[in-house]
User: Fold these one by one.
Assistant:
Number 1:
Amino acid sequence: MDYNTLAELLFGDITKTPEDIKKEYPKRELPPKAAVTRFAPSPTGYMHIGGLYATLVSSKIAHQSGGLIYLRLEDTDKKREVKGGADEIINSLKSYGIEFDEGAAADDCPEKGIYGPYRQSMRRDIYRTFAKELVRKGLAYPCFCTAEELDELRKKQESEKADMGYYGEYAKCRNLSLEEIKANIDAGKEYVIRLKSPGTPEGKVTCRDIIRGNIEMPENITDVVILKSDGIPTYHYAHVVDDFLMGTTHVIRGDEWISSFPIHHQLFTVSELPMPHYAHIAPIMKLDGGENKKRKISKRKDPEASVTFYSQQGFPVKAVLEYLMTIANSGYEGWRMKNPDANMQEFNFKLEKMPVSGALFDMDKLSSVSKDIIAAMDEEELFEKISAWAESFDEGLSGSIKSSPDKFKDSIALWKYNGKKVRKDIAKWSDLSAMFPYLYSNDEISEYDFDEKISKEDTKEFLKIYTEKYNFDVDGSQWFADVKAISEPLGFCPDIKQYKADPSGYKGSVADACTILRVAVTGKRNTPDLFSIIKLLGTEETLKRINRVIEIL
């Protein structure tokens, strides 16, 4: 076989060589141990929490070593590509503080960096140049098999109980002569380019995985497709060429790619390109049905699989990132306890300390982390972050903020503090409207959680006299004294200890009277300081709510 003639027959329009291309991608000038990592998603849907997780790790490994991270869009599958998918990925990660040092940008923005294009769909002739060289060396060939012929091959292998795949004696087009290839091309037959695998059934390859250690696997014997019939590469081949040209030193990816390592190792080897280091991350898991039953978080089943879920719910960005770090590295929680105020970037992340089995994502633990982070924010920061979130996700809350910013700031202090102690009730911004509808909703209260031990008549009587006798222009201590004075003639004991000693002698205690008032104003028995709520709502609104309850009763 004259492989030079074959290469020109298949790639006559390609005039550059791989050496020419390599000169266009100079070696990066970085510190000796600097890591160059990448996030290389397909723009085929929303941003998955696992993608954020992997990018966070990749970014940390790159930047703590003095290296960089870039974004490469693997957009060669145009059938599955979602319009705006690239922008969704870029904007989602940007909202979590992850910005790439170079790489693909949003559709209307220029790319950053000199190692592009960073969209694989724009690199077609680069891949064809490297593929031409493999053909010229006799390491790749055209395959004219149709889908029907490949299906027949699978059936034959099934009947013979042979390993599945296009290899050895089953590789029908592997040994076509140059004349046969010319005839097929002249006849207009479509073809793909396949690797002529040098692998043997007995051969082994070792993946030196940074997280998992050495993994020995059978080497690849399949003549995998490297270029599809339209000249666009498969993922396997494109990533080999790109990771070399873009100077990638560490490929950090999901463990579902471990089984592909023998193919990638072989493609790097036959292309005479140095391999990057590999680290295969365990997937993010969730408990499902039983205490020890775990499964992968699913795009189809789980809303929390999408990064936008956390934005919509109002989890602070810092809380999500902080929690992801706790599941990414076993030493992070201990470090955080010793360094409560340190920036996350100060933590020395180690790939070797990532979990080997599935990393369990616990929403309760995320909420706990988030409560601590929200509790540590000052009122000004809370006001800014809640306002920004409500603008996009809670029209009612946003309206409350805009109509009376000062009042809203006062309400923050109301749910943030219990006296001088900081409360930790709020895990996400959407909790505000859910937990405090009496503060942030214009809707009338629909349910009242009155204590059944106090009759409707006694409840109504107390509220009616309260509205007639109460002076709103007082401080907190005087307010409580007035509640005692109003409730005592109605049969409510003003002294809690005295009431506990003889509860049968009273309708209730002054605490029960306060609860009646609390429920009338908020609908709930448990709220932050009632006097503060009344002052925040104002005289008119408070009386309006109490009078409405009197009418209902």
Note: The chain has a mean pLDDT of 93.
Number 2:
Amino acid sequence: MSKNQQSHSDAFFDVWEVLLRYKWRFLLTSFIVMITILGGSLLLPRKYEAVAVFDRRTDMVMAEIMVHGAPRSFQNPRQSLIKELAGQPAIDELIERVGPEFVRRATLGDDTVDVRALRADLSRRILVEFDIATPNLDRVKVQYTSSDPNVARLIVNELVQSYIDRTRLEIDGRLREATSFFESQASLVKERVDEIATRKLNFEIEHGDLLPDSPNNVQTVKAMTEMNLTSARQKHDMLEMKLQAMRQRLTETPKSTPSFITEKNPELARMEVRLRELESQRALYVAVYKMTLKHPDLLAIEQEIDSIKGQIGNTETEVVTQKRFSNNPMHAELELQISTTQSELESQARQINALEDRLTSLGTTSADMFPIRAAYERLERELEQAHRQIDFWEENQRRVQMALSAEASNRGIRLDFVKPCDFIRKPVSPNLAQVLIATLGLGVFCGGLCVFLAHRSDSSFRSASEVTETLDLPVIGTVSEIISVQQRRIRNLKNMIVYPINVAGMVLVLGAMAGFLYLTLERPYYFDQESEKHAAPSAATEAIDSMPVIDMSGINPTPIAGFATEQE
């Protein structure tokens, strides 16, 4: 075993020896402290917590309206719910509704009531929490702690009921006011739309040719005129070129044309006759006289035939026998075409002049186009804005009317008092577990502190080693404690009978007080039932019972899934 382990073991045994030596100091001190704490807990004033739960549910119809942009002021946002439910105005209304008897009971029967202090106390002790917080459902829990259970129950129930009534009236009133407001705004904007539409129509009639959407506006007409002018100039140039070409052709075309009477050329007929004669003679020489191609006569005939054929090929077939002159129709046609083209050219020139004058006039008119168009665009913007305003007001009016219809049929924002506070039997303060933990902890602490002080203040020697270490003197010998037989018997009797009986008595006393404390804190209705059997109701109880009672007939007592009533 190491030195550290040896020192730890020695320290443990030393502590245990000290506890055994001063065990009665520890037990008596702890017992006295525990008895004192338990007795004080029995005398502490009881605090009762009242809890009331209500739902604020938005139906699917209202949810659809909210999704599409209904004003959120109709939703009573969560930020303001706590102030509306437990704020100073709600507390003032509560004090006014329940009357002076409640005020005296809430202040423990004090005749000199400080209403301002009462308001501050209520504002401090009333707690509002959200058990469920969703877009369609808010489950709100209202808590209040008081020494009188009837007062606590009345406060939370009255707060919730007054909030429900007040909220319902506020929602209905705001919806009706909003409907009237949206309707009046829509009527005003409709009148403005009619006035702007009339101004726009008169403006279009007066300045139709300068408006951008008009089919005959200046820009369109000017562009068309420029196109027509360009086309007219091109056509004018083409006509000039055509006229020049026709005049050129006219100068080249004669006014009259000759006609000739022709007959067959007699020289050609003579040569053909001579050719036939030579061919007949050649045939005679070959067929009858049997001449060959080398015969000089036949050669001469062949040469002459070739010569005549050459002359026939070079001789004209017909010859002019008579010549006549007549007027040329092409020349007259060209003159007619020239006069027509000249007329078209003059007409095109006049059209070009008219188009140029039209462009000049349009240029002068278009100088006022931009101011007029700016004024027209302002009218259009005003009309468009007015239409948007009409749509906005009518859409809000429709949504508010839907919300009002939903509220009228209890399908809008539904406020249900799902769990009113019932009669309170069990206090919440003092807490049994806390009292028992404090009793045990403080008792052990005070007993240990007493043992520590006794040990530190004890200067006696318990062993020879302590004498040697403290006085630095050698110890020759020690004598143990000398007790008689009678003393030993008395000591054994105390250790075996008296001390265990004392410890058992202490435990019984502590258990009895803890049990009584348990009954007073966890099962107080046992004592209430016994007292109600033998005692008549007090004047204060009658006064509380005669206070205004919340009408629960319209509240659905069925517990919502996941939340059971206190009785269950």
Note: The two ends are 62 Å apart (CA to CA).
